[in-house]
Amino acid sequence: MTASPPETDTAGQHQPDPAPLGPSWKINLLVIGGLIFVVLAYSLWQIGQLRRNFQNYAREHSRVVSSVIEQNTRTVRLAENALQQTIKTFLANTAKFIDYLDGVEAFSAAELQAFAGEAGLAAIRIERDGSNHNTISTGAALLPALPCDKAGLDYIPGKNLYVMTWTRPEKGCIMLGFSAQNIEELHQQLRMPALLKALSNMPGISYVKIDERGAEGSPPSGLVVEQRISAGDTVLRVGFDASQYSMRVRQIWRNVLIFSLVLACLGVFFSWLLYRYQSAYLQKITDFERKLAREREDAALGRATATITHEIRNPLNAISMGLQRIELEADELSPEHRELAASMRHAVKRTNTIVGDLLRYSRPMAARRDPVNLRELVDGILLLYKPQCQGKNITVSHHSTLDRPVPGDVELLGQLFENIIKNAVEAQPGGGYITVNSIVENNQAQLSIDNAMPRGSVGNLSQLLEPYFTTKTRGTGLGLPIASRIAQAHNGALTLATPDPDIFRAVITLPLT
C-alpha cells in the first residue's frame, strides 16, 4: 500500500494541514448526557422511594385495620353479652313487678294490655295456678307454648322476639315477650359487615374484605394495591387507593421528560455554538498559517526573482542599447537587416516587460494610506485607454456614487485598475463595451467592471487569479494576480464572476476606513 503525496500549492510548498477540531463540543454533549443520566437515576431512586413508602403505608394501615377488626370483634362479643344480661335483668324485674301488682289486685285483660304498652312489651301471659285455665294474656299469639318450669330467657328468630319465663314464688309463671327489632338493628351496626363497610369508606381505602383461607378472591381492579393479612382460617384483604401514588409517579416522569428535553435542546444548541466557534477559530488559524506560508513563499520568490531579474536586465539593457545604436549608426544596413534589428529590439523590450511584471508580482506590497479619489482615478485610466477603445469600437461608461475618498496607494490602485481595464480591452478585439459601476455598500467601496466575453472562453474563473495562467496568445498571466495582490494589500478583495454566459465581471472591494 503506497501513501499518496501531500497536497501542494502553486509554488510547490506544502499546504498546512488544518488543525483537528478540538473535542470541547463533544465533551459538552457528554456532560449534558451525563446530567440527563443523573436526573434519570435520581428520578428512578425517587420513584423507588415513593413505592417503598407507599408499601410501608399499606402494611402499617393493614395492621391498624386488622387491629380495629380484632378489637371490634371482642367489643361486639362483650356488647352482646352485656345486652343479653341487660334484657334478662329488665324482663326479670318487670316480671317481679307484674307478680307484685297481680298479687295485690288481679289484672284484667284491658289493664294488662295497657301495662304492656307502657312497659314496651310485645306480649304478657300470666299463669296463676300453673294451668291454662287461670291465665290472662295480651299478645298471646306471639308467645310460644313453653312450660312454666323452664325459666330463663329465649330468643325466637322467626318472630324476632325475646321471651322471658319467670316462675312465680307460689304457683304459676309469668311469660314476657320483648320485641328484638331495635336490638337487632343495634346488632347489625356492631356486626362485621357494617364494620367492613365503614372501614371501606375511610379515605385512601378502596375495600376491606374477609375471605376464607384458600378461597380465591377477585383480583383488584383499577389503581388499587391489595394487602393481605392471614389470621387463623381467614384472610383479611385490604385494598388501598393507589391513584395518588400513580399520579405522583406520572408527575415525576413528566418532569423528567420535560427537563431532559430542555436540557438536551440547550446542550445541542450550545454544543452547536461551540462547534461553530471552534470551526471559525480553527479556520482563522488555518487561514493565518496559509497566509504566513504564502508570505514566506513570496519572500523567497521575491529574493530569487530580484536576483534573477537583476542578472537578466543588465544583458537585456545592453542588447537593447546595442541594437538601437546599430539602427542609428549603421547606414550600410539593408532594409531587411534593419527590420530584423527592430524585431529583436521589440522582443528584448517584451522580455524586459515580463521580467518587470515578475518583479512587481514577487515584491512585497507595501501600500500607503493616502486619500484616493477612485472616481477621478478610474476616469483618468479610461481616458488613457480611450484611443484604443475607439480603435476597437469599444464603448466605455462609468457610473459612480462614491462620495468620499478611499485610503490607499494611488500608484498601486492605478496599476490595479489599469491591469483590469487593459485586460478588458485586450479581451474584445472585435468590439464590445466596458461598464464601470462604483458604489458604497457596508462602509466599503465596491467597483464592478463588466465587459463582453465570448461564450465558453473561460472555463474556470479561479484559475485567472493564479500566476502565469492566461488565455491570451502573448499574455504573461500576471496582470490579474498582481491586481488581486494589490487589492489584498489594501485589505480588500478582487473577485471574478460571470453573471451571464457572455459577460465577464471583475469586482473590487476596498474598505473606506
Short description:
This protein has ten helices and 15 strands.
What does this protein look like?
The structure is a single chain. The protein is an alpha+beta fold. It folds into 4 domains: 25-186, no CATH class; 191-241, no CATH class; 269-364, Helix Hairpins (Orthogonal Bundle); 366-511, Heat Shock Protein 90, CATH 3.30.565.10. It is 53% helix and 19% strand. The chain has 10 helices and 15 strands. It has helices spanning 24-104, 109-119, 181-190, 192-200, 243-329, 335-362, 374-384, 386-391, 410-426, 479-489, and strands at 123-127, 135-138, 152-156, 161-167, 173-179, 205-212, 224-231, 234-241, 370-372, 394-400, 406-408, 432-440, 444-452, 493-497, 503-511. The protein has a 5-stranded antiparallel beta sheet. Strands 10-12-13-15-14 form a 5-stranded mixed beta sheet. A hairpin with a 7-residue loop joins β1 (123-127) and β2 (135-138). α1 (24-104) packs antiparallel against α4, α5 packs antiparallel against α6 (335-362) and α7 (374-384) crosses α9 (410-426). The longest helix has 87 residues, at 243-329. It is rod-shaped, with a radius of gyration of 61 Å. Residues 1-22 have low confidence and may be disordered.
